[in-house]
Amino acid sequence: MKKSDTTGLTQLGNQHTTYTFEYDPEVLETFENQHQENNYFVKFNIPEFTSLCPMTGQPDFATIYISYIPDKRMVESKSLKLYLFRFRNHGAYHEDCVNIIMKDLIALMDPRYIEVWAKFTPRGGISIDPYCNYGKPDTMFEEMACKRLMQHDLYPEKVDNR
């Protein structure tokens, strides 16, 4: 097995991390996928995501699920944490948050496939759970994205899980 190349990673192992509260995708970093010959999912569960309602300024809380099939590059998890942390003071609707996250990760690592799903806690008696996905054009992953989008909520969760 070849050794992972950590050249250029500035957040991993950094004991002097500065936490910034302004949205900035530049904090995201990648490393080389050591198993490019395989198709496999990497899944992140982020149970403490926070953003701000752009109309009221009230906080919104969610669990974000990011699943992707890497190609050549993979997102480094500490940089992802710092990136998501920066939404804390960012005013964006729920649907915007998942699409912004997905588009930033596509621009960063050009995955074969990615999906981002948020489970926002109810506010005003309504919970919002936006889902978005992407499959690399002209590959089997483009068709996979279409199918998963159409079937992503065939088995909705029970209301008692919040």
Explain how this protein is built:
The protein is α+β, with helices and mostly antiparallel strands and 162 residues long. The chain has a single domain, classed as GTP Cyclohydrolase I, domain 2 (2-Layer Sandwich), CATH 3.30.1130.10. 23% of the residues lie in helices and 25% in strands. The protein is built from three helices and six strands. A four-stranded antiparallel beta sheet has the order 2-3-5-6, with helices on both faces. It has a two-stranded antiparallel ribbon with strand order 1-4. Strand 2 and strand 3 form a beta hairpin. The longest helix has 16 residues. It is flat. The N and C termini lie far apart (42 Å).
Poorly predicted sequence stretches spanning 5 or more consecutive residues: none
Radius of gyration: 17 Å
Class inferred from helices and paired strands: alpha+beta
Distance from N terminus to C terminus (CA atoms, Å) equals: 42 Å
**Anisotropy-based shape:** flat
Brief descriptors of the model:
single chain, about 160 residues, GTP Cyclohydrolase I, domain 2, two-stranded antiparallel sheet, flat, QueF_type1, queuosine biosynthesis, EC 1.7.1.13
Fold blueprint:
Blueprint: E1 30-32, E2 42-52, E3 59-69, E4 73-75, H1 77-85, H2 94-109, E5 113-120, E6 131-135, H3 140-151
Antiparallel strand pairs: 1-4, 2-3, 3-5, 5-6
Give a short summary of the structure.
The protein has helices at 77-85, 94-109, 140-151, and strands spanning 30-32, 42-52, 59-69, 73-75, 113-120, 131-135. With 162 residues, it is of the alpha+beta class. It has one domain: GTP cyclohydrolase I, C-terminal domain/NADPH-dependent 7-cyano-7-deazaguanine reductase, N-terminal domain (GTP Cyclohydrolase I, domain 2), CATH 3.30.1130.
